[in-house]
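Re: the 168-residue chain
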Amino acid sequence: MAKPSELTRMAQEIEGHLSAVRRILRQPVEAEFARGNLTGPQRSVMQALFHADGLSLKDLSRAVGLAHSTVSGIVDRLEKRGLTERRVDPNDGRASVIVASQRVRNYMRDTYPAVVVHPVTDALRRAKPAERAAILEGLRTLRRVVGSGAGLQSCAGPPGPALRRVRR
């Protein structure tokens, strides 16, 4: 059985590799967002709207954790660019809901999935068949053991002093 220090070193190396892979995989997505000239808060609003079937300004503000007036300004700017639309709330004709425009929904359905998987697809094309199988099996195994709670016992119990300070 591996010694704790060996396990710690291995865990750190795995986390380093996972972090590097996440950065590489996010590059095309980040480039798309940069091409669209969206600020961070605008991206948050667009993501919340895309995953909802329409949100009131109040619910959208809550979803993105920003002030009502801030989100209202963001929505106004996005609407001017044709990225959002205000519609009559089907449940209350006096209220409105904000939705991602059809243009955005088309992009997210037709283009965005390829942007997300493109780096992985390219990498798999370059890999030998045995490497592809090893990658998939390794990830399945890691997901299974992480998902089963392996290694979480050492994290059980009350938070340490540093975490308690952060929560205040």
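Helices lie at 4-35, 40-50, 57-64, 68-80, 102-110, 112-126, 129-147, 161-167.
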